[in-house]
Specification:
mainly alpha; 2 domains; 10 helices; about 0% strand
Amino acid sequence: MNQQKRIAILSRLRDANPKPTTELEYSSPFELLIAVLLSAQATDVGVNKATRPLFAIAKTPAAMLALGVDGVKHYIKTIGLFNTKAENVIKTCRILVEQHQGEVPENREALEALPGVGRKTANVVLNTAFGWLKDNEGRYFIAVDTHIQRVANRTGYAKGKTVEETEQSIIKNTPNKSEFMFNLHHWLILHGRYTCVARKPKCGSCIIEDLCEFKDKSE
């Protein structure tokens, strides 16, 4: 795929959704951190249903820590892998309280050191909660999940066998980074969630169908 096509793809996605954001509900960096941690192998809709009552009584790491593992489980038991996730939530909150004065660190390495927090979660928090495009070393915060990996590889926008490879390919291939990179994660994930779906992409209603290089387009 050439850069002219990539610019056209991003321009159309931007025109259709000028101010995209996550579908997870949150009111602070801490709440977004917990929501993204819980979202692994779960839908945003399911996570939001669980976190609304949870965040109503536990808006801070200290308040969440006070609930304990069983207390957190009570609220998130409808989410997949809730036992492990509850333990990671409590471990993470303990570290935030004991090592970060109850604040979510604005640093990828510090975030990735938290239990249950990987590169994608760290990038989401830094980009969406804190508004970072890249760090002081010039490393971009672009969170790549299975939706984004599928869209990037299927369309030909970027290639990668793993999410990490796809992340680096997206960064390398994205033109006009200052214009597009900040919202690219949201545009691609929403496109993958609702149009370029896994089993049968909705090519006939896709706004970038004529730019996409996927050979097996569906009607």
